[in-house]
Amino acid sequence: MVDPGRRPTVKDVARAAGVSASTVSNVLHDHPYVTEEKRQRVTDAIERLGYAPSLVSRQLRAGRSQVLALAVPDITSPYFAHLAHVVIDEARRRSLTLFIDETGGGAAQERTIAEGYLSRGVTGVLFCPVELAPAELERLKSDVPTVLLGEYVPGGSFDHIAINSRRSAVEATEHLLSRGRRRPAFAGMRLDRQAGPAYERLRGVREALRATGVDVDADLVFDVADHSREEGARVARELVRRRSDCDALICAADLLAVGALSALREAGVAVPADIALLGWDDAPEVRYTAPPLTSIAHDMTGLAQQAIDAILARQADPTRPAEHLLVGHRLMVRESTGAG
Amino acid sequence: MVDPGRRPTVKDVARAAGVSASTVSNVLHDHPYVTEEKRQRVTDAIERLGYAPSLVSRQLRAGRSQVLALAVPDITSPYFAHLAHVVIDEARRRSLTLFIDETGGGAAQERTIAEGYLSRGVTGVLFCPVELAPAELERLKSDVPTVLLGEYVPGGSFDHIAINSRRSAVEATEHLLSRGRRRPAFAGMRLDRQAGPAYERLRGVREALRATGVDVDADLVFDVADHSREEGARVARELVRRRSDCDALICAADLLAVGALSALREAGVAVPADIALLGWDDAPEVRYTAPPLTSIAHDMTGLAQQAIDAILARQADPTRPAEHLLVGHRLMVRESTGAG
């Protein structure tokens, strides 16, 4: 009998099955030279004792590791923390092991990931690139099933999942127009690259504005270094310094909006009376700012599910065509755009 | 010659060394029946080609996995996201693989972790328990080197690292006293358990207050369900409803303070004029609230380094006495307690 307070070992299984430890090991490793009868006795004993083979054993039995990696720029960003949260949850539900890596948004680290995680035994990667351009991602592409989250690669060969950034921006802008705003500023990163979520959001803003006969003023478009509170504050201070007559600030991420809100308050600019403010991601903190911020929420659970589905489908069939999938979004209207 | 754009395989190594692929595999797995001369040729080829064996191979060669786990209640909490950030960084610096798990603060999930991660091949765990009582943690304790972060186990046998919660609370309270506050409320979780960071912080508040001849009013001590913005808002609404004459609210975590700030604003209570407010963790968002919040910052990098050191030391010597280590903290004074 195995002491209930102790985890059963291979030796316990061998004793219970009446076989040698190396026979148990052979069964665990699916070696062909074990008789069916012994295999059955070992399997029964494993079940009876609740023996849990180690990760290494399971990987060997499966013929490959089922370790997925999630590579995000910075886990301290509320968006990426939320993404990690739902991916951890979804991986656990499917008995996959997940490890989380940070790139720091750096090109070298992103290259390592684009080139594949094989040396670490990872067979599938959920990757959120920010620094590498689509062309370089394509050039570096490895055989490790990799799904890109967020970064748009026109015609690219990666599986890719995101919200419809352009469409969500159309809706956000139409909301601002319905509140009488006519002259929005826009802040986001990598606008010069003409790809990526922020660029798609700017496209959506333009599309909605042009329906009213105007375009976004080029002077009111801010390319930021990252989607941080600091950069949002910098843009807001610049708007105040210029005495810009814009009546709304559309931020491609909530952290930019949080930073902008703080800087506008310090400068005595009222939100939303003087400048309406909104962001993307529906970060938890935006419900608690003064005033609470309007934001576009992503269907994060759907994103995690579809991302893992895409990895597993590509593991099963490496030749399947690249998929570009969309998940839902929802405009959460709050006081910062004059709700109510 | 191996194509520089492709990762070398076992076959490439075999070709370069003039041996069979199975000989390479035998060397990687440290099988004894390889001649020293062949072993040397394979090792040379591995080095020359820059071949990186898979995680599984490396684990087998090392005789055990060097995979550490970080188990936190919820990665979307800024404190735990920051902790994950510094632990990822520190693990990478030491070429350790890290996987991050969430317990959801649930007892069942915490039990799984306390009982050890062996079934997943993890040989060291950095664990932030919130639900399990110290006695149960001791009862479940496994052979997997585990360091507790944050939870205080008096006389416990786990390695344990935290800031000096009691001391930091004395400093925070003395700061409030120096600003003329005399009647603080306190909010934190698991105060009834008489252990854990929040309880230690309450002890520190009491100690500093008693030096002025008074104690904390028992009616102003709030046990909260978790350290969330929602719970902070609830406590603040309760204070307002009671027309409490408290002049400060000391929150055991920044998220409580963020929630309280929002609810006080909605109730027309001015911070800091009516109620001074402070928290712990120095979450990034508290620099951007209106007003910015005073908070106690932890030396997170020191925490990550000491935690991994403790795991490795225990792997090397399982019989070493349990260590209870402290890392530094710093009171970051901002407007919410009347800075300036």
UniProtKB/TrEMBL annotation, chains A, B:
**Which regions span the lipid bilayer?**
none
* Name of protein: DNA-binding LacI/PurR family transcriptional regulator
Residue ranges annotated for the HTH lacI-type domain, each copy included = 8-62
Question: Which organism encodes this protein?
Answer: Amycolatopsis jiangsuensis
Record's Pfam families? LacI (PF00356), Peripla_BP_3 (PF13377)
Q: Does the keyword Transcription regulation apply?
A: yes
Keyword tags: DNA-binding, Transcription, Transcription regulation
In the UniProt record, the signal sequence range is none
What SMART domains does its record include? HTH_LACI (SM00354)
